[in-house]
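Listing 4. Sequential folding, example run.
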Amino acid sequence: MSSSAETRPLVAVVMAGGAGTRFWPLSRCCRPKQLLPFAGGRSLLAAAVERLSPLVPPERTLVVTSSLVAGAVRDELAGLPAENILAEPEGRDTAACVGWVAWRLARTAPDAVMIVVPADHVVPDAAALRAALAAAAAAAAGRGGLVTLGLRITRPETGFGYVELGDAAGAAAGHEVYSVRRFVEKPDRARAEAFMAAGNFRWNSGMFAWTVAAIEGAIREHLPALAAGLDEMMAAVGELGEGEALARHYPLLPRVSVDFGVLEKASPVWAVGVDLEWSDVGSWLGLAELLPASPAGVTMGDVVALDSERCVLVSDGPLVAALGVRDLVVVATRDAVLVVPKDQVQRVKELVASLRAAKRDDLL
């Protein structure tokens, strides 16, 4: 098969293994963030797969998720072949997720270009995203190396990772391609402001493209323990079957993100510059980017609010009644109520950790 971008098959990999603890109590282990109806009444996962469908057909779209929710994911994505829902027996972060798919594809579609996207993003302009991903895939096929989408910075955000662009390296499918100088994780406010002012920084979207050979080679070079574990696991598939091989070997794989473990160390790494509206819906405050504002702030479900401002009020059953409150997040479900000031909302995951330590599994 030719190695050109036009003839290499595209395979979409949707990473849907996250727990979404920042969205407790609505998000639970069996109903993670990506299955919540935050995308116009649809789940974030369904919307993510739908956005890809004109670019990559369902038979070449793979969703990697937790074994705890694999059945719910299959129900949510009835248009995908059931065998395209890949269930991790235990979450080992994104390097293991990406590596598992790459090692599988090395056997079945070694010429493929992988497009890797998270399941929990919101991108209103789906056509623009597909064009950007197609450009990233063309760059990956034509240039080699690893490719990230670098999103235009619109505010000095401290909750995102950043990528510093190097020299312009031409175009791919109508999008500028740049060398990547470095990745920077979640800067403080002053550094975020400096990055925005500098002009050569972009948000690291967490969306990537690379050939199977490129990511396999990068993992072997920079995460040799992961590569060895994947080799052992795939060697066991023929003898034990994939399910048993996964159960035995996957939980032993190193837990590390593909960003930290591979991209920050690899060379060459490219960035495709993209200007589109995007949200990773990272906390309850992210709902303000998705839902229309009300006088009280943002509301979802059965909510009544009087003389209240700048709040996030969510009901998944019982009435939430707010009177004379400001800057609060209140989320009510059948068995739990969250009340937290907006400026403390990133600490919700601490509550989840506390419940786990107390063995309150019924609330997780």
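-- end of first protein; second protein begins --
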Amino acid sequence: MIRRTLTQNLTRHLTRRAAAGLLALTAATGLAACSSASGNDQAVRDDGSVDLSKVTLTVGDQKGGSQALLRAAGDIGRTPYKVEFKTFTSGPPLLEALNAGAIDIGGVGNTPPLFAAAAKSNLEVVSGAQMGAKGDAIVVPKDSPIESVADLKGKKVAVAEGSSANYNLLAQLDKAGLTYQDVKAQNLQPADALAAFSSGHVDAWAVWDPYTSQAELEAGGRILVDGAGTVNGMTFQAANPDALDDKATAAAIEDYLKRIARAQKWSNTHRERWAQVWAEDSGLSPEVTRRAVDRRVARPVPLDAKVVGSEQEMADTFAANDLVPSKFDVSDYFSDRFNQSVPNA
């Protein structure tokens, strides 16, 4: 069952924090392991109401992510609270910072929360959107003799461990009758993977947009297979439980989630503007971002049993392939507390 309140599970959160202490101290970001929500306590008035003008919300982001989307939709600088964005290369390091308390909330794909949860990290998934999965792909060089996923056996495949591409690769291999051990997975972040792919040091690259489009348009790649019909195409906003336990920060998070959902829906009908701002923010060419935009339709969805069940299936698959230590209950890391307040498609 999806948990409906956080306060009912304070003991579980405290236990998880203790278990995750070591990971918090060694977070890859090197940011201080203290809750960024702690400075917002003065925002709660004597009558219990919140003065959002005294709140600072610290948001983890990726290039061309939430900040760019909000800017494209004209919503940057319009919040009644201050927003500080911190940029990360991908979801896993962003969630390490979340676990350490260095950020309050951040946007990630469908897989990073599962690896973080398997490590008993501090996180609560609080909203989600279905983006489709055409941009989640395995790409190979145009002149590669590889014509099917089965042909990847024994080949070097670049993939960021714990990313959405990690699950897509695993799922595609399974459909082709292969195991994860049948390929030589190379754990590379996108920038390093692009260099390895472009120079021919790997045979294939499992990745997500806009890097899929970049591989096609700038690195001579072709899509071997995409994730449509195979992976759930979800993206999530995950929060630090300390931030959610803080009344003022939680109020800012609720407002922020509404703005993200509205901007996601806005992007479906303003594709040129979204692609332009995405290019400006990421440094990618407009051709790359436009192709990535054309491959997705953002649809905010409630965090219901269907979403959690899909993520549970993914987590069980990772456990079966020894990519996470053991099976665990995914629902412990999802909350539906904002389902009624965040606009859905």
